[in-house]
Design goal:
Strand order of the largest sheet: 5-6-1-7-8
CATH superfamily of the largest domain: Reverse transcriptase/Diguanylate cyclase domain
Mean pLDDT: 90
CATH topology of the largest domain: Alpha-Beta Plaits
Structural class: alpha+beta
Number of helices: 17
Radius of gyration: 24 Å
Order of helices and strands: EHEEHHEHEEHHEHEHHHHHEHEEHEHHH
Strand content: 15-25%
CATH class of the largest domain: Alpha Beta
Distance between the termini: 69 Å
Shape: globular
Number of strands: 12
Low-confidence stretches: none
Helix content: 40-55%
Length: about 400
Amino acid sequence: MRKLSQIIIHVDMDAFYASVEIRDNPTLKGKPLIIGSLPQERGVVATCSYEARKYGVHSAMNIKEAYRLCPKGVYMHPNFEKYRSVSNQLHDIWNTYATASEYIALDEAYLDVTDSAGTWERACEFARAIKQRTLDELNLTCSVGIAYSKTAAKTASEEKKPDGYFEIPTPEDFVNLIIDRDVRVLYTVGSKTAEKLNRSGLHTVRDIQDHQDEVLQLFGKQGLWMIQQAQGLDDRKVSPYRPEDAKSISREITFQEDVDDYSFITDVLLLLGMSVERRADRVGLYGEGVTLKLTYADMKSITRSRLIPSTRSAATIFEEATKLLEQVPQKAVRLVGVGIYHLVGENGRQLRFEDFMPEVKEQEAETLKIALEKLGTHYGLDFAGNLEKIFHGETLYRTIEYMRKHR
């Protein structure tokens, strides 16, 4: 039995959002399903079924282009609350086998099974069990790769997609697998990096290995990491995600039509600020700065920020974001976003005056309540009775679109 210094499983769900929707509505099976914005809306593809991919549709594609390629596809908005719920079920399965889990997204993770499995053979049993349990318990398929490193495990899970399984036990196996493939097989090589390599005559992983000095001259430190990957070297550990590692917590909305009514944008800031407060409260974090992001009709984006005493108060976020809004050029707006940054936990934050004065917090809550009541009266909406529903992603979007049309 082989005992390795590190054994990592990479799990990647197959077309996750689409697969969940097809599972819950079997009439969608076999159809080109595209999840994201609707064809008549602004936005992009979040994900799509494999049937849609045959038409050239892919995630992050402009929805208008997707519709041009696949006009007979089934288009629907994502249901993130449902996907988060399924993701939690997946994590329960994965965590059964791992001593450390690093979630990359709702549907993807690195699992360290070095100690829990003990041997390569036992780890392979774990990997197959994860695939089988995912199918048996959730009626979903995933692609699983198992390897000696994170880079190799990720490559392995991509090797037989969808519903795949692949093993890469050693660095030699990894190099033999990718040596004559395009440089894009290395996850650090994106399209721009690949173009730069190609312009220098470097097209394959073998080229990177054979021209290391040139790669270092072109990319410096990034080039060194590229060379190490090409040689199968990667000793990175699986790092469980901690909320405090995030750089910011934010929420943004893209309007279906450009907006030049800044009083309406101010109203939107209130709802976005409350949404940020809920996200921050859920993970127990505070921000020491507030940001405002605007994308104008001409697609130019600006970001404004200001440092403040640590907070996650919606009233404070709204107040500060409103001040920032007053300082920007007033042109038609396509997107607006609000966030907090310089995140700290309860123990690391600087206490505010309000922390010693409960009546100040009560006043903030009352101010927020009055503002919501005014908003509800103006737009004919019951904010007070439906707050929890409203702050679900899709409902918030629909609510703000309703407000835009009825302002």
